[in-house]
Amino acid sequence: MSRILVVEHEAQCPPAHLGTWLSDAGARLEVCRPWAGDELPATTAYDGLVVLGGSMGAYDDDLHPWLAPTRQLLREAVDRELPTLGVCLGHQLLAVALGGTVAVNPRGQQVGLFEVGWCDVAGSDDLVGGLGAVRGVQWNSDVVVEVPDGSTVLAETPHGELQVARYGPRAWGVQLHPEVDAPLLRSWAAGDRDDHLERGIDQDAVLRQVDAAREELERAWRPLAVRFLALAGAEVTDDRARRVSGRGR
Predict the structure, then answer these.
(1) What percent of the chain has pLDDT over 70?
(2) CATH topology (fold) of 3-244
(3) Residue ranges of the domains in the chain?
């Protein structure tokens, strides 16, 4: 059973569906919560690393002192070619750790379901190749505006905002949130309510849209977890995961 280290930045941003899919496919998850006082372990005992999202910024080291050690952890994982996945903030921390830049999106916060704008090169990627036309949930104000040297852009919005990138032979970042559903998003919406009211964002409509797409989103993103685990050297054990990833019927 492959051991996957998951770094969680706050209680409102758990592994959720991503954790379930990895576990279903045969992973043993070990969730590290530095926000609650957990010490970040070395990656040498693990077969893969997942760094989740959070409401803080990638440079907020003064407020969240574990961010700098997390970036170091990511650098070490990339150097070791340990299969690594950064989600939203995790994606941004990965980019910054390797020399990229993150900034507030001048177009404003991205909220809701977004089409994934795959680049041609994504078709041959080990993790996301062949996922096809999919949508994903985005809930972010910051974006990676400069990728590190040697990175490969795999998906962008129509405005050129980075959605998915490969940062090393076995390291990926996704600005999207494959792990979330409408109930989890409600807690995020509550925190952003005043800002969204001011900007005219209909939170109820967004949540209804995400909830209506729940089966679509599982079909779209469960394969990501299955493929990630395969890259970590695991044999997929879950029949549902095999079928949805094309490994079954």
Answers:
(1) 94
(2) Rossmann fold (3.40.50)
(3) 3-244
